[in-house]
Structures are given as structure tokens and as C-alpha cells.
Amino acid sequence: MAEKLSQDELKKMVGYKSVDDYVKSGMVVGLGTGSTAYFAVERVGELLKSGELKDIVCIPTSVRTKEQAESLDIPLVTLDTHSKLDVAIDGADEVDPDLNLVKGGGGALLREKMVEVCADKFI
């Protein structure tokens, strides 16, 4: 019988896979806000610390994400200095029955939208 994963375990898997599949050395990366994005930020920090990722800079979408990234020694910049992002990673606040992702349930919507619009790819 298959093991049932918790919500947090699933979010961690998604956050880590997003970083593993889409974030490469030398990129400008948007870091989202919320429970799934938390794990993506965690993964970026791990890969930088291990040396698997190099020369990236990140733009956080909230104070909470900024504080987490700083605690992991992730280099941060702003949209003022880097208005073109290679990729942005964020979670969905809701998914409708047709599998459309809905943003806006959290408190960082404006900043999340600004980063998303500036990114070549949004995950």
C-alpha cells in the first residue's frame, strides 16, 4: 500500500523539485511567499551552501521571505536593480475545479504579481 504523504511533505517535494528543475547558476530568481515557497527558498539556500548553485541573486516577494533568505545567506536584490528575472517560484493560494491556479489569498499579492510579470518563467 502506498504511503500517504502529509500536506507539508507534498509542499516540500514541489518546492524542492521546482528549484532542482528550473533554477540554474547565474540566474536572477523570484522567491514567492507562503508555505510551498518556503520550501523552495530552503532548497535554494541548501544548493548555494553546498556549492551546487553559484552566482545567483534572488528577489523576495515579502518581508517573511526576505528574512528567511537572509538567514540562509541567499544574495538578495530588488526589482529596482534587476527588473528582468529568469524564473520566479511561488505557490497557488487556491486551485479551482478546472485546475486554474488562483493567487490572492495571502498578503503579498502585489509584490508577487510584480515579480511574476518580470519573470521569463513562472513556476
UniProtKB/TrEMBL annotation:
Cite the GO molecular-function annotations of the record: ribose-5-phosphate isomerase activity
Please give the catalytic activity noted in the UniProt record.
Answer: aldehydo-D-ribose 5-phosphate = D-ribulose 5-phosphate
Keyword list (alphabetical) reads: Isomerase
Coiled-coil boundaries: none
One of this protein's Pfam families, by short name? Answer: Rib_5-P_isom_A
Q: Which example biological process does GO assign this protein?
A: pentose-phosphate shunt, non-oxidative branch
Record keyword Isomerase present: yes
Which EC number(s) does the record attach to this protein? 5.3.1.6
Record-linked InterPro entries: NagB/RpiA_transferase-like, Ribose-5P_isomerase, Ribose5P_isomerase_type_A
Q: What class of enzyme is it?
A: isomerase
Per the similarity annotation, which family is this? Answer: Belongs to the ribose 5-phosphate isomerase family.
**Protein name per Swiss-Prot or TrEMBL:** ribose-5-phosphate isomerase
What species does this protein belong to?
A: Minutocellus polymorphus
